[in-house]
TrEMBL record:
Gene Ontology MF terms in the entry: ATP binding
Gene3D superfamilies: P-loop containing nucleotide triphosphate hydrolases
UniProt keyword annotations, A-Z: ATP-binding, Nucleotide-binding, Transport
Key word ATP-binding present: yes
Location of the ABC transporter domain: 6-239
InterPro entries: AAA+_ATPase, ABC_transporter-like_ATP-bd, ABC_transporter-like_CS, ABC_transpr_LolD-like, MacB-like_ATP-bd, P-loop_NTPase
Protein name: ABC transporter ATP-binding protein
Pfam families the record matches: ABC_tran (PF00005)
Amino acid sequence: MSGAALSVDGLTKRFQDIVAADELSLEVAAGSFTAVTGPSGSGKSTLLHLVGAIESADGGSITVDSVEVTALRRKKLSEYRRTVGFVFQRYHLLPALTALDNVIAPVLPFKVGFDKRARARELLDAVGLAGRERALPAQLSGGQQQRVAIARALIGRPKLLLADEPTGNLDSANGTQILDLLLELRDERGMTVLLATHEQHIAARCDRLIRLADGRLIEDIDLTEGEPPESTLARATQLRL
Ligand code: ADP
Ligand code: MG
């Protein structure tokens, strides 16, 4: 197995005359937690959308776990999308559904090899919302709604979690708690995480910081200071979560 969970090569995306991703190249190690930073409009969301195949690239390639995502079509592409968890700044919960049903929603139409309700309960428990399964989004605080959204992102057992400014709508204390939760989930489940943020106190706690400007990668800093990364994959295998 190669160390790179995600490999991006010469990735380009244009919106009319704007180049939102400009020949981006990047390798991300399995089980690592990378902050994607840069000012508004620098291409953070575009990178995450391209990696999650929410948008299609104009050029270059994205490879996830040895599968070239940019070459996938139709059925294979929708299968790939289901293996990636996505967390948004504004939670995007369905307002008429309970917390539990929101968590189940992504896998509802599909045959999966697990009990959907049981797993959704377990995930709500893992994000600190045991007992709130029947609450509607409007009955939950912003931080709690983001916890539901994180549980929902995990229902398909993603190896890759993409979080686009997940703390951007929260105050600093709630934002810190959400980051703590994501770091803990990464450690327990061995996921690879890409988190877009323009908040320095959030980025500083990640393993690695990449900075974008005008769709280009202008800085790439290892924040682990030479410490060997913890064996998150080995632990996740033991826990089988
Ligand atoms: P960030 O997330 O860093 O704020 P984005 O990836 O959202 O940056 O945007 C990068 C650039 O692409 C910006 O100039 C933005 O206006 C443009 N852009 C993003 N999405 C679209 C779109 N759907 N249509 C037109 N322009 C877009
Ligand atoms: Mg954005």
